[in-house]
Amino acid sequence: MSGASGPLRIALVAGEHSGDQLGFKLMRALRAAAGDVVFGGVGGEAMEAEGLTSLFPISDVAVMGILPVLARLPKLLQRIRQTADSIVAARPDALVIIDSPDFTHRVARRVRKVLPNLPIVDYVSPSVWAWRPGRAKAMRAYVDCVLGLLPFEPDAYVRLAGPRCVYVGHPLIERLGELRPNEDEARRRTAEPPIVVVLPGSRRSEIRRLMDDFGGALQGLSEAIGRFISVLPTLPHIEEEVRARAALWPQTPRIVLGEAQKFEAFRAARAALAASGTVTLELALAGAPMVGAYKVGLVEEQLKYLIKVPSILLPNLILGDRSIPEKLQKDCNPDALAAALTAVVRDGPARQAQIEALARLDRLMRLDDGEAPSAHAARAVLETIASRRRL
Predict the structure, then answer these.
(1) CA-closest candidate to residue 285, choices 177, 167, 182
(2) pTM for the full predicted model
(3) What is the pLDDT of residue 1?
(4) Which candidate among 125, 215, 252, 259 keeps its CA 20 to 30 Å from the CA of 376?
């Protein structure tokens, strides 16, 4: 498949590192599926290494949080206009926006006004199923197809009257080899003393709210089961504060840095205590039973009345139930966390039920043909281009 005259020309717009990672794999898969493809737009180092010439450094738009966004608003607005104008001038065969909706959706809306027939694909759904669901219907005006990373998202878009949504698979599916234990690691999971992985979050606000409660929970677990080994994976930008806070725990955990050591701990873990986030999906795909926990400030707590989901843990949302215990706000306290953690560390009904639920999650997330998510995403992009051409 190629453009009307010559190569297929696709504009890609990513706004942060995670989008850059998805983008370069999509570029590779599009070339494999369509042959001669030329790319333009905005991306990071991985996309540039794959052949994209980015209009500007991705760091110009990779801004999170209200205050940082406000501080850089003039530059962000300039980059939105620049990106949209460049795509309009290039007249590509399709536009693929990748995550970062505050940036990419603004670009898509501007492009759609000038090029109403250009196929536009959104790779990574905004959390419309959880927050401001009216966005799904609004997206129909400027998105032709959404590439969902979670298996329940296509049904959510039907329910919310949004654009077509296709489940293409989560990028973690491509990393199962790193997440699944080998025979020795599987044996270590059942050996004594058990390894318990502790994940109090990746943001300073999270570790300040959760680390005292997590430390108290480990004390309660020690009183219930005796000796165990705790491993705390963290990141360089918060390592110093994590070490200082962990030093106050009754049992100092082994602190590890980097993804390789984190996944190594997951593969040998008997169980985990984790802050809500993508890490819970990593643990679930690693087959490690867990307890999820989260605390927010008083202002953020009031936002719970606007949130439309029955769970804050991704694995539970995929499963459609609360198979993984989640302790939030007042329930996120040492006694409640210790009791729930003890139940999944010990052999018994709670642990067995969660192991069975994690096997079910595995089946729900699987792509039946064994192809990579990026290959599914590329196919959906090409199908969207073909269907728009038929109109």
Answers:
(1) 177
(2) 0.90
(3) 42
(4) 259
